[in-house]
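Reply to dn_fold:

You asked what the input looked like. This is it:
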Amino acid sequence: MSVRSPRVLVVDDEADLRELLELTLVKMGLDVDSAATVAEARALLARQSYQLVLTDMRLPDGLGLELVREVATVYKNTPIAVVTAYGSADNAVVALKAGAFDYIAKPVALDQLRLLVRSALRVHDATPAPHGSAADAGRTDGRLKGGSAVMVALRAQIGRLARSMAPIAIHGESGSGKELAAREIHALSPRAGQPFIAVNCGAIPEALMEAEFFGYRKGAFTGAAEDRDGFFQAANGGTLLLDEVADLPLAMQVKLLRAIQERRVRKIGATAEEPVDVRLISATHKNLAHCVEQGVFRQDLYYRLNVIELAVPPLRERQDDLPVLAAAILARLAGAGQPAALAPGVLAALAAYRFPGNVRELENILERALAFANDGVIEVADLALKGGHGGQGGQGGQGDESGAALPAVSAPPSLPAAPGDLPASLPDYLIAIERDIIVRALTQTQFNRTQAAQLLGISFRQLRYQMQKLNIQEPET
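and this is what came back:
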């Protein structure tokens, strides 16, 4: 018995473009039906099942956007993509928000069309039941642990978003699990078997950004001894996470915007662009809308990245999940050959803490406590919780930008001084003071260097330079 070819519906009133699309799809081994109006498309959808609908945005009897909403609502397992006029970025964003799987701009580049079609067919072939189902939302065996209401809702939303190609902007406080949410989206998507590349935008020196993102050719600059792919090429076919995207300098934002719009990148030293098929997810603890208002983030890039928003709740809003999270962390520690258990009263003490560093801070607290624990049993005293207790702000901690109290730190160590309380060496004394202040800021931000730099009122690069000069190392965990 012969296997039936996937069937695609093309909706466009331009006969020439419709014929070009049909020929390209037939050469890919697909069956194609075509319609020139919204009414014809509705009639075909009622009679036939399709693996993909490709529609123009402007049709004689209506808008392609109407068809997008209808297919997304009535034919939920059928991905629909739109063809937009050149430069109509706003239309593409509106279509994605309405439920479109993806978009392609006129004039249609056939290599990009083929990439889009292959991605759409993977989406249709993926089993739809687990994504966003009640069973999936209630599970606790994935990356995002917890059965609280906010986590069940988050997992359900992730399940729905996983099938789309629309860019997702993940917001949440530092340590709340933004990268885990991005990995979960990738794992539930048809791209799960393809690469997932996570990039910390705040950790790349500005001079190296273009080479890191887009790659370079051999001999393009001093030290370029061989061809090298960038992050976009490495993530081709899969997902690219732009973590701390708000830290991108404006010059790089322009180049990134072009790569997103054109879906092509050019390596440094190359003469031709190459197509890339990447699903973009961005993450930041900052308010991107405020960054746009302050002029440090481009508005057009913001709209491109912020098509769908996903908010990851802080730990203080899901404290019912503390037992599950603690158990998962202890299981990992036990898997590393360390016996680990909690004594009575430890969970109650953790529940009284505000966790300004969220789940990452919980991990650090338990790992540190285990190092001091007797026979692998963590007592309340081993937690060494300081400040941040109680539901409304803690004791003596400074506030972070979310309003949470930062953990208190010990006072600076006493420094050697000459008689009369004068330092024996002023340069050594000042270096010790500077080192202590930087360490305290890093401790308060769980060694998030971006946040620590903000806390100290200096740039990220200044902080990195000072850490190197003073030999300040991030503690191993």
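The longest strand covers residues 279-284.
Hope that clears it up.
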